[in-house]
Amino acid sequence: MTVTLPEGFRAAGVTAGLKSAGRDIALIVNDGPLHAAAATFTSNRVAAAPVLWSAQAVSDGRADAVVLNSGGANACTGPEGFADTHRTAEHAAQALGLSAQDVLVCSTGLIGQRLRMDLLLPGVEAAVAELGEDEGSALAAAEAIRTTDTVAKTAQASGRGFTIGGIAKGAGMLAPGMATMLAVITTDAELDPSTLDAALREAVRVSFDRADSDGCMSTNDTVVAMASGAHPEAGAHDEEEFRAALTEVCRDLAAQLIADAEGAAHEIAITTIGAATEEQAETAGRAVARSNLFKTAIFGGDPNWGRILAAVGTTDVEFDPSTIDVAVNGVWICRAGGIGEDRSGVDLSERRVEVTIDLKSGEAEATILTNDLTHDYVHENSAYST
Amino acid sequence: MTVTLPEGFRAAGVTAGLKSAGRDIALIVNDGPLHAAAATFTSNRVAAAPVLWSAQAVSDGRADAVVLNSGGANACTGPEGFADTHRTAEHAAQALGLSAQDVLVCSTGLIGQRLRMDLLLPGVEAAVAELGEDEGSALAAAEAIRTTDTVAKTAQASGRGFTIGGIAKGAGMLAPGMATMLAVITTDAELDPSTLDAALREAVRVSFDRADSDGCMSTNDTVVAMASGAHPEAGAHDEEEFRAALTEVCRDLAAQLIADAEGAAHEIAITTIGAATEEQAETAGRAVARSNLFKTAIFGGDPNWGRILAAVGTTDVEFDPSTIDVAVNGVWICRAGGIGEDRSGVDLSERRVEVTIDLKSGEAEATILTNDLTHDYVHENSAYST
């Protein structure tokens, strides 16, 4: 049910012909009674037209609908591209009886190409016609935002006075400052926009922002959260419980993105412990996550801790190279900056890999999720646009 | 002739058995009359034992000899590894009749393994016995520092009152703050250590520091320069001419490293023009050089300027996303942040690729050298230590 599991939401996913095959336009509508919304966007300065539009449209804390398309990012398309996004919002608003200012737009696909508006606008109308509260409608929406994702990503959670549903797409260009992706999260909790915004930012900080598949930050990343207040016990939720559930939904979706990243053979959780601050733990983990040599080593089944140390050594986080420890899948193969337990004890045959780095400099920790670097990654990304 | 082309130098390269095949110990001796020396080292905080040793040994501006070994980096080997480097310097010094404090040591190869001192020390003796001023000796030294390099790298230059020779090795872990590599540059110019040091730092800044093959900074990078003052017209050189020639030798070696980087199919020069400062030009170029999506696109013959803009957009350099231009091999496929000339006019069939980014924010420029990301890179680096 995901995004239609919370009361007050309808969804649809249709085929407009923007992609060579499959659904490519999703629509999610919040029927209220509340229309609180919050969103976070890519920090890339080359932001796509839909990011520029949606950031402005959501700034008043209200959104009634989100239109998402795959088959084109509408990035680096100039004023014409922005006009295309504006027309998309106007068109959806008219068909739904809303104000265009309350319609957010998200796009994903190739950069530097105009969208086929002759296909997109009829597709938006078709989506409006197919809106439903059933599970099939929510799944169709999750399907429609896929690009090279091999599976649709959904997550949900609930507690007293609230239900949360979410969909996301990822696959390539996954990096921090926002894991390059689109996600829409719905809830029927009774929340004002600023409370929703604060909860979303905290959830994104420790979930999507810590998913770093290939170090490449997209121009289109968007996470939208909408609250309808339509829960039977709306207003009865505990704020802490809601925040924890929202964070869990975001973590769940982020993990699914990493599990299905382009061409990956391993999903890798890099946990840095003993850091002076949480930020330093994140910095150390991200440096390792961005080392192509570390990533190829994991692909090769090689627990190469020297490449992990070399990556941490490029940062300015507090640690002493002569005391740092590193474990791979529970085996402490680096002790005190040197050779530790026998590396032949490390089993890398499973997809999931756990790296633990102990900086011995404090109590803080953080986990970064990443992938290995494989032949399939090179293949998919060298052939993508040609 | 390279490192033995300048007067006052002898070299040797021998096989000690540290690698599975081929020469693996190089020795370069400065017979004077001057023994001025300067060196730059990796800025990686996980610095290898030979880096720690050599940085201290060269701090007085004097070096009489450099011992270099492939077949082991002697990094992350703790106090025992440092003792191994110390013994290597002592052993070479004794055989050459020098002080160990005047012998620099460089190592390259796998991280996290002790060196086979039972092979290395006899190898140092053999190298001392084979020292020669001939071309074969210089080439043997260049051969002995190779790891996965497919060819030996040498360069030379001369002017009134000076000759310069250089050798280098690179291949993997090539990144900034020092292109991960070893290089030894000799000259017979009459130079005091501080002048040599200033000239070397400026030359390295615009050459090796701007070679960024895979974004991974090594624990062992070292560039050593030694001046013998043995030129027949020693002291007659023009300081500007010498600096320019030294920079040219460093640029030549850096370009050779990129041309022979592990598994690369293209060598890519990313020139950023119209930057507010030279540092900003370097930052923009480096961001592109580190984008795996850009690198795989070039491998796939795809002039994907959207990925170039997305990479520049992650930086804080001065530019306006709506005015930036990008050319690939002379075709301005991105104009004013949007679609420019026809991308089908870009020919990527040659190894050499020229990317030009015009930030339209000033007069400064810089060129970063990098490689594409290929199946061979993944293959070589996933299989390296297993």
TrEMBL record, chains A, B:
The active site is at residue 180. Gene3D superfamilies: ArgJ beta chain, C-terminal domain (3.10.20.340), L-amino peptidase D-ALA esterase/amidase (3.60.70.12). Its EC number is 2.3.1.35, 2.3.1.1. The record marks 179-180 as: Cleavage. The record marks 108-109 as: Involved in the stabilization of negative charge on the oxyanion by the formation of the oxyanion hole. One of its GO terms (molecular function) is L-glutamate N-acetyltransferase activity, acting on acetyl-L-ornithine as donor. The keyword Transferase applies. InterPro entries: Arg_biosynth_ArgJ, ArgJ-like_dom_sf, ArgJ_beta_C. Pathway: Amino-acid biosynthesis; L-arginine biosynthesis; L-ornithine and N-acetyl-L-glutamate from L-glutamate and N(2)-acetyl-L-ornithine (cyclic): step 1/1; Amino-acid biosynthesis; L-arginine biosynthesis; N(2)-acetyl-L-ornithine from L-glutamate: step 1/4. It is found in: Cytoplasm. Substrate binds at residues 147, 169, 180, 262, 381, 386. Catalyzes two activities which are involved in the cyclic version of arginine biosynthesis: the synthesis of N-acetylglutamate from glutamate and acetyl-CoA as the acetyl donor, and of ornithine by transacetylation between N(2)-acetylornithine and glutamate. This is Arginine biosynthesis bifunctional protein ArgJ.
